[in-house]
Amino acid sequence: MIKDNETIEEFLAQHAVDVEDAVRKAAAQEIMPRWRRLADHEIDRKSGPHDLVTDADRQAELYLTEALSTLLPGSVVVGEEAVHANPASYEGIRGEAPVWIVDPVDGTRQFVHGDTGFCTLVALALGGVVHASWTFAPVREQLATAVRGQGAFLDGVRLHAGSPDPDRDLRVATSHPDFTTDDQKRSLLALRTDGVAPRSCGSAGLEYLAIARGESDATAFTWEAAWDHAAGLLLVEEAGGAHLTRAGEPFRITGGNDLPFTTARDGATARRVAGLLSAGA
User: Fold this and answer.
1) d(CA 95, CA 44)
2) 137 phi and psi, to 5 degrees?
3) DSSP 8-state secondary structure symbol assigned to residue 48
């Protein structure tokens, strides 16, 4: 727990490894035993045919909620499935208590299809600022971590996003059209220009990891759900990247952003993509 006069940085110095352990155990106990073994009754749809939830999502979130709350008494947990059941619980992100932001299975559609492209996302935030993040892709056995001001790491190796090759089209992962408004579609269409190669995104968490590793150049996303973005935004920042909304402002996990927004390998790329999104509005 954060004791009297203890900072969140001091808490993380002592307990970041405990969070990692909880994330790994949630995947080992609740997610991986169900991968490629899901029965029809273990899969449900939420808002539409592409918005899936499984027993793995629900049980992994319950595991993490208990483990993280125990680790940091007085904190709150904002998880995707709990918010679906009780939308008012999302307000915890805007409260004064430390908040764990959890996506138990990011890339549920890929998980349901038996693909490897899914991960578990956990971020710790306070006052709208993300202080630490964990991105765990269990099938790929990859764990990416970041602590504000201390860098980003993949399996213990420091990440450097670098800058895109100027002689190659920008590789930009974009929101699926099913999750965009007409206004947002117009913004995204502006990316279909010389020098840019847009494509539909997969798991948001893994798209952020690809940017932090320098394997992809940018994203252009149209939704605000903090569980999809909080962990990855810090990971990219600590790897040297940047993020901007269509209005040219940094993305806020507390909401109220002018969407779409971009996250990119460096500031110049973020400004270029944000400018195109703004021009297409």
Assistant:
1) 31
2) -105, 95
3) S
Map tokens 């169900």 to a residue.
Answer: 34
Give me 189's structure tokens.
Answer: 């269409």
Q: How far apart are the first and last CA of the chain?
A: 46
For 127-136, write each residue's pLDDT tens digit. Answer: 999 999 999 9
The pTM of this model reads 0.94
Instruction: Reply yes or no: is the peptide bond before residue 260 cis, omega within 30 of 0.
Output: yes
Strands, DSSP E only, in the chain?
43-45, 52-54, 76-79, 99-106, 119-126, 129-137, 142-147, 151-154, 157-158, 170-174, 196-200, 218-221, 242-245, 261-264
| Beta carbons of 187 and 261 less than 8 angstroms apart | no
Decide: 131 and 8 in contact? Cβ < 8 Å.
Answer: yes
Question: Can you tell me which residue has the tokens 């993490």?
Answer: 64
